[in-house]
């Protein structure tokens, strides 16, 4: 059945949860959303997801062991897009290096970039028990997927950032991402459509660091010609290169 942009049919590509995964759980809601229906689910933030490359969302509302959980699987066009959405959404993580490569375990919520999927698990109650169940639910999801995880650009890997620094890495590829994460870069990158900006949201030795990767050499050359010397130094000491 199709109702607007909300779908009831099952999409077997998602690592969705079921009663076998969570014995005794009550599944309150299960809904699929495409790009046209995303605005109604995340209330105004859909455009940013679409900028990265959104495909489809599976939302499950679950009651389990006296707690209520919202489980969201955002299937993006590729692993890079899923990492981008994850990078701009997670913050104040209690644990960041457990279970899988890109994960943020925080009070009330677990977030992860699992291949093409950005996964969010949130509970309404908080506390040690509910937060522990968040992790248990994520472990079930992890066991149901064999997605290939995103590989960071070699230019970032070569910087030898610490795990703590890498957890602050943000990835943007369009105007909306710049406006939300790095507004100071709008003047320098606002005229380009085919680039990738990976940058830390914290200072390292008094400066921010990262890399811009342009898809077109002509854009790279134009950017370098327009933004030399003091301008780049004032913004970020970023490495820039053509793809």
Briefly characterize the structure.
With 243 residues, this protein is α+β, with helices and mostly antiparallel strands.
Kindly describe this structure:
- There is one protein chain.
- By secondary structure, the chain is an alpha+beta fold.
- It folds into two domains: 142 residues, no CATH class; 89 residues, no CATH class.
- Helices cover 30% and strands 28% of the residues.
- The chain has ten helices and twelve strands.
- The strands form two sheets. The chain has an eight-stranded antiparallel beta sheet with strand order 1-2-3-4-5-8-7-6. The chain has a four-stranded mixed beta sheet with strand order 9-10-11-12.
- It is globular, with a radius of gyration of 19 Å.
- It starts with a strand and ends with a strand.
- The relative contact order is 0.11.
Structural class: alpha+beta
What is the number of E strands?
12
Biggest sheet strand order reads 1-2-3-4-5-8-7-6
Question: What composes the largest sheet?
Answer: 8 strands, antiparallel
Number of helices: 10
Characterize the overall form. globular
What's the pLDDT, averaged over the residues?
86
User: How much beta, percentage-wise?
Assistant: 25-35%
List keywords for this structure.
243 residues; alpha+beta; four-stranded mixed beta sheet; 30% helix
Write the layout of secondary structure elements.
Elements: E1 2-3, E2 6-7, E3 26-33, H1 38-42, H2 46-52, E4 54-64, E5 67-76, H3 79-89, E6 103-106, E7 109-114, E8 117-123, H4 128-143, H5 154-157, H6 163-166, E9 169-172, H7 175-181, H8 186-189, E10 195-200, E11 210-214, H9 217-226, H10 230-235, E12 239-242
Parallel strand pairs: 11-12
Antiparallel strand pairs: 1-2, 2-3, 3-4, 4-5, 5-8, 6-7, 7-8, 9-10, 10-11
């Amino acid at each position: 059945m199709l109702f607007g942009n909300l779908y009831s049919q099952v999409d077997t590509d998602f690592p969705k949860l079921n009663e076998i995964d969570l014995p005794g759980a009550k599944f309150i809601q299960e809904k699929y959303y495409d790009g046209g229906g995303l605005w109604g689910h995340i209330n105004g933030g859909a455009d940013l997801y679409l900028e990265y490359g959104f495909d489809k969302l599976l939302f499950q509302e679950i009651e389990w062991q006296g707690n209520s959980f919202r489980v969201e699987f955002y299937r993006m066009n590729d692993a890079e897009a899923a990492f981008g959405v994850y990078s701009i959404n997670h913050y104040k993580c209690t644990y960041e290096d457990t279970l899988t490569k890109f994960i943020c375990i925080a009070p009330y919520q677990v977030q992860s970039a699992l291949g093409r999927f950005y996964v969010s698990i949130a509970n309404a109650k908080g506390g040690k028990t509910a937060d522990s169940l968040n992790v248990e639910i994520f472990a079930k999801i992890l066991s149901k997927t064999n997605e290939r995880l995103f590989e960071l650009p070699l230019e970032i890997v070569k910087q030898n950032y610490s795990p703590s620094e890498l957890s602050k890495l943000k990835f943007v590829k369009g105007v909306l991402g710049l406006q939300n994460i790095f507004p100071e870069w709008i003047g320098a990158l606002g005229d380009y459509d085919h680039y990738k900006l990976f940058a830390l949201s914290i200072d390292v030795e008094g400066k921010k660091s990262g890399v811009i990767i342009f898809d077109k050499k002509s854009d790279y050359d134009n950017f370098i010609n327009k933004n030399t010397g003091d301008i780049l130094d004032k913004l970020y000491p970023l490495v820039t290169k053509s793809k």
